[in-house]
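G., before I forget:
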Amino acid sequence: MKAATIRDVALRATVSVASVSRVLNGAGPVAEPTRRRVLEAVEALQYVPHSGARSLSTSKTNTVGVILPDLFGEFFSELIRGLDVAAREHGYHLIVSSSHDDADEASAAIRSMRGRVDGLIVLSPHMDAANLAASLAGRLPVLLMNGGATDAGRPSIVVDNHGGAVTAVKHLLDTGRTRIAHIAGPAGNLEAESRLAGYGEAMARAGLETTVVEGDFTQASGHRAAARLIADGQSLDGLFAGNDMMAVGALLAFQEAGLRCPEDIAVVGFDDVPIAGLVRPSLTTMRIRIAETGRSALKRLVGLIEANTGADVACDVVRPELVIRQSSGQAATPDRRAAANRAPTATGSSQLGEVRDV
Amino acid sequence: MKAATIRDVALRATVSVASVSRVLNGAGPVAEPTRRRVLEAVEALQYVPHSGARSLSTSKTNTVGVILPDLFGEFFSELIRGLDVAAREHGYHLIVSSSHDDADEASAAIRSMRGRVDGLIVLSPHMDAANLAASLAGRLPVLLMNGGATDAGRPSIVVDNHGGAVTAVKHLLDTGRTRIAHIAGPAGNLEAESRLAGYGEAMARAGLETTVVEGDFTQASGHRAAARLIADGQSLDGLFAGNDMMAVGALLAFQEAGLRCPEDIAVVGFDDVPIAGLVRPSLTTMRIRIAETGRSALKRLVGLIEANTGADVACDVVRPELVIRQSSGQAATPDRRAAANRAPTATGSSQLGEVRDV
DNA sequence: CTGTTAGCGCGTTCAA
DNA sequence: TTGAACGCGCTAACAG
């Protein structure tokens, strides 16, 4: 009991496969009676076109692949959400391939995409352009989002991690903090390194010393790193975490240690994942409109696919935007009545909207 | 400048395409010199097999499709993570198709999968078995996770939503709460309805009246629903939310209204998404090991695909497990030093591990 | 051990 | 307006 093919339909409708194809694709002239008979047969046989076969014959899969390092945390899930809705809008399917911790794995994943997809979005913070190019046999449209240096000559979208980090640190300085530590992302990760560099630059410019502990972008690593900072007896009054998840981990560690945030120590994260607005104190962070970025990435890739000219080699840069919440001491608890269980904070409920708009 | 095909390789290595295929797939006998020449040609031409063509000829795509209602919230992203790692382990790719709000859309999505995948995992809380069967031309292995009644005759995994809801409400009763409201998921959603029914049953059994407000599983809807409950002047002391995201929304609404949780009102959620352990107060909830469930779902589907017998028609049931945290008043703030900014809670730090183990 | 050939299911010329 | 035949790139029989 196998699935019906276009042949079965043709046979039952007593027409040729070509006619069936014409009817189904609305291409070419078809007489009304023929058309009717075909549709009847399709209905009777529950026929559904075999997209694999169609792809082979049209060299069009209507699918795009997404190469990711891993799927932990909210960043990537938000991104996928954005990609997915855009894909649907443009009539594309999405095939995801994650857990590529090094360049080799990512490279293998890219190769395995040949014949499955019409284009690729690559987020591999460990892979440079050269490495990537080598993985790319056959001219498959690729959009790079590997957060590295502007990989010249390839269409790409990068986040201004350096600039964002500088802004974050400046914000902490603006609130009067001077002993500011940084929890960095994993070494070798291009995004992590840019943010670290931005932190370093901003601190140097202010004539301040730096304190850096390495994490791996997970909440647990942020927790550990913060615990270490406390144990080291550092008298900190500010923390810039390499991403929100680590910042959240640090927040909890501070809380466990009896440190009040933002009174004792102010915290700023990076990414603005949905959870950032939901923790207490809510997290000041550098906002990347993640899902939105995903949408535009997919849209751009579709452009690359459909206008198969190599014209678009621009490097869009996404500039993160400072979102001030409670953790940096500038937003108040949005309580309306007595907030007996919370320490008073500086200002009124001016940031209520911001806290909610996640 | 097109990508090289197996023919190009054969030509360059002066062998037949069959030999190339044999070398690349390690199937059949190949003489060493032949083998070497083929590999050289592959290298020189940067040849990568076209998996679409391979699929057509082997009727094997090594891809599984996942049909989802949407991608909001952490539940689905956690699930996808579990599915993805398991897929990788088993040598499969994952193609996701989401945003299917009604049965028709889901049905169309399922059809569009023919020829792309070897099997399907369907999460469509709106689609019953009959509807699904109609969408399935050709016998494609399908694993159902639509949370509905045990769809007899089809392999499926269901969460014991009813039992979980009863447990959740019982827990609230155990802590001495009696005026317990429920924020339900969207009408028509099978999971939401089971949880609602469980709530109703547990309340009835305790001889208590019910209060239900409808939400849609989003954090915002939970916030709105809680606000409505407050505005209605209900003197509640307990809340069972249909899922964690709505519970988190409610938590914030209570906070804004000056209600203390758990002192004034205890809250229990459902799912145990990662965020549940990170909000404050941390959220008591019914734990579903989401990623783990995804892993086993994929594993089971692979079993269905590879042993193509219709033997497996069981309905695995996942029993949610109560995780007690701060929001139901039984777990303490895990502060070590002075916790001046927090109201005292009932017990010591006995639940510290549970709060952390997310 | 190796090459030839027939499909896999579909779109698409090109004649009729 | 229709149908026969070829090709997409590859695997798998079957000869040699």
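The domain at 63-159+290-318 of chain B is CATH 3.40.50.2300 (Rossmann fold). Confidence is low (pLDDT under 50) at residues 332-358 of chain B.

More on Monday.
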